[in-house]
Every structure is written in structure tokens, then in C-alpha cells.
Specification:
about 350 residues, globular, single chain, 12 strands, alpha/beta
Length: about 350
């Protein structure tokens, strides 16, 4: 059977043989009672890797972000975030529905709120206004095609939030992709926030789960909200054994292969007449391709790719997204570029 090339998302990454073997050999215990040793070891490892006091394992990044918002805020508070942040656009309004939290979106084409706009959005102390309680950042930024905010922007935001005594939560679903692009360790980004969520089940390849890390008092609150939201799992050892390998230095370093292949894909697509890729914004493993010059709309283009057993994602009528992962090799990239050129020339 001919292989499908799946460029929809890096969430399709499968566990490595090493992860499967570790899961098979993992000890099990009731994690709600604190008796699953694999979960305890994963949480301790994650705290060290992210340079935080403590960390907890949660079923998903969406839950991790929601727990963080709930733990930092009270009902009726407001959070500030970039206008296309995943927490605002793609997490089913959980902060509003569960937490009674308002969202104040701020423009940020570089991936984080612009400094002046951010400071202007912070509410003065006035009985008519909701209280600004939290700033949420995202890196890499999903909606902007995996771009990574400059470290200096992050540091300036930290200075502003310190001035107003506001905590920062970092949606770092792909934190290590961002860190590799910047040439720093993951903990160097995590230090710029009071809490951070990292996904284990995207490019890192663990089958399920994310990490939420922060100060001990924050994690104490977070554990209560994890239970409230249904994240108090039981025998988690199989999953957490995979998570520990996901956070290994060699597995994190492997993400560079995804970045390299995304760059080859982006440059190849951009060389095809009628297809445009903004190469300056290909930072990690995402590629956004503009098809306007070809006259072929996205749905048609994706359908023709699918006929050639290639999967990608609709962004808008003229834009598609492709995401590289460990499931995609060099031959797959070559095949995709050949197919794209064939479609355009027809």
C-alpha cells in the first residue's frame, strides 16, 4: 500500500519504539493518590527542564491552558492576549464558560501583543472595569504559521507585567520548537513566564498529554482545577513513561529535522510559479502557502493533493498550511513538491 504523506499537523507524530518499550515496562499506580511513580518522575523531570518549582501532567494542552487561567484569576477578571492566540480562538471559549473570564485581544503580528497596545490594554483600578489579572503569550504561534516571537519582545512584555504586578502564562505547546529556532534552552523561554504549558504529544511524539509548570503555590491551585476538569487520571504510568522520553535532550534536538524539512518545503513551494511563501516567517515546522497567483483555490488544491495521497490543511480560500513532523521524511517532501508543481502546471 502506497504511503500517505500527512502534513496536516504534527499531532500525528507516533511514539518511537523506545517510548513503546518504556510504556510496556512502566510500573502503574493510582496517580490521584500520588502513587504512580512514572507520573511523579515525569513531573519532576519537567520541572527541572523548565526551571520551575513544580509541574503536573495533564491530558491535553487545552486543559493545561484552562487550568492555568483558572489558577491565576477569579471570576469576572480579564486576561490580555494576542488577538489570534490559540487560547482565544481554538479552545472552545473555556476561559469564559468555565472561569467567567473576559478576554482582551491585542494585535501582535510578531506573535505576541505589541508593547504599547499591551500596556494600554491594562485596566486602571476602577469599579466600572473588570480587573486585569493575567497576560497570556504563545510561542511558537499557531495561527501565524509557527512563528517565534523575538526574545527581546518577550523580555519587554515581562518588564511591563512586572510594573503592573501581573503574571504571565505561556502557551508553549511547541515551546521546544521555539527554543530551537532562537538557539536557547526551553527553560530560557519558560523563565519569562510565571506558568508554562508544554505539549508532549505534538512533535515530541508522546501519545497523550501535556505539562503545566510553575511555582509551588500555583501548582497547588492547579491540581484542584485539574481534578475539577476531569484530569485526575489513574494509572498514568504508560503515558508518563513516554513523556519522559519525549523530554529527553535527543528527542528535543530531533525537532531540528522537522524545521529543516519545513524550510526545504517552503523554498520549494515558493519556487513554483503561482505559489508564494513568506520565507521570513518560516521559523519552525509550519509552512503557509498562498495560492492566489495560481488561480487555484485552497479546497480544490487540497482535493488534488489528496488524490495524490498528500494531506494538508485549509486556512482560507487562498491559503493552505503544511506541518512537518517525524512522520514525514525527505522523500515525502520531494514527492509533495513534485505533486504541487504538477497540479499548478495542469
Amino acid at each position: 500500500m502506497e504511503k500517505w504523506v500527512d502534513l496536516r499537523r504534527d499531532t500525528i507524530t507516533l511514539p518511537t519504539p523506545e517510548m513503546k518499550e518504556a510504556a510496556f515496562r512502566a510500573s502503574l499506580g493510582d496517580s490521584v493518590y500520588g502513587e504512580d511513580s512514572e507520573q511523579r518522575e515525569l513531573e519532576e523531570l519537567a520541572a527541572r527542564v523548565l526551571d520551575k518549582e513544580e509541574a503536573i501532567f495533564v491530558p491535553s494542552g487545552t486543559m493545561g491552558n484552562l487550568i492555568a487561567v483558572l489558577s491565576h484569576t477569579e471570576r469576572g477578571n480579564e486576561i490580555i492576549l494576542e488577538q489570534w492566540a490559540h487560547i482565544r480562538t481554538s479552545e472552545t471559549g473555556g476561559s469564559a464558560l468555565v472561569g467567567g473570564i473576559m478576554m482582551n485581544p491585542v494585535p501582535g503580528p510578531r506573535g505576541v501583543p505589541e508593547i504599547k497596545e499591551l500596556e494600554a490594554a491594562i485596566r486602571p483600578d476602577n469599579i466600572h472595569y473588570p480587573r486585569t489579572a493575567l497576560v497570556c503569550l504563545e510561542s511558537s504561534h499557531y495561527r501565524y504559521g509557527g512563528i517565534v516571537a523575538p526574545l527581546e519582545d518577550m523580555r519587554q512584555i515581562r518588564e511591563v507585567t512586572n510594573k503592573y504586578c501581573l503574571p504571565i502564562h505561556l502557551d508553549g505547546a511547541r515551546l521546544f520548537n521555539a527554543a530551537l529556532y532562537l538557539g536557547v534552552a526551553g527553560k530560557d523561554l519558560a523563565r519569562l513566564a510565571d506558568s508554562v504549558m508544554v505539549s508532549l504529544s505534538k512533535g515530541l511524539g508522546s501519545p497523550v498529554g501535556s505539562i503545566l509548570a510553575g511555582e509551588k503555590s500555583f501548582i497547588t491551585r492547579a491540581k484542584r482545577y485539574r481534578k475539577l476538569l476531569g484530569g485526575g487520571m489513574r494509572q498514568t504510568g504508560w503515558l508518563c513513561a513516554c513523556g519522559r522520553i519525549a523530554l529527553s535532550p535527543s528527542n528535543i534536538a530531533r525537532l531540528e529535522d522537522d524545521h529543516r524539512r519545513a524550510r526545504i518545503l517552503a523554498e520549494g513551494l515558493n519556487s513554483i510559479s503561482g505559489v508564494t511563501v513568506n520565507l521570513s516567517r518560516v521559523h519552525t515546522n509550519f509552512v503557509l502557502a498562498d495560492l492566489r497567483g495560481s488561480g487555484i483555490q485552497s479546497e480544490t488544491f487540497l482535493s488534488l493533493l489528496r488524490e495524490r495521497k498528500i494531506l494538508a490543511t485549509f486556512v482560507d480560500d487562498w491559503t493552505i498550511r503544511m506541518v512537518t513532523s517525524r512522520q514525514v521524511n525527505d522523500e515525502d517532501i520531494e514527492h509533495t513538491l513534485f505533486a504541487a508543481e504538477e497540479i499548478i502546471k495542469k
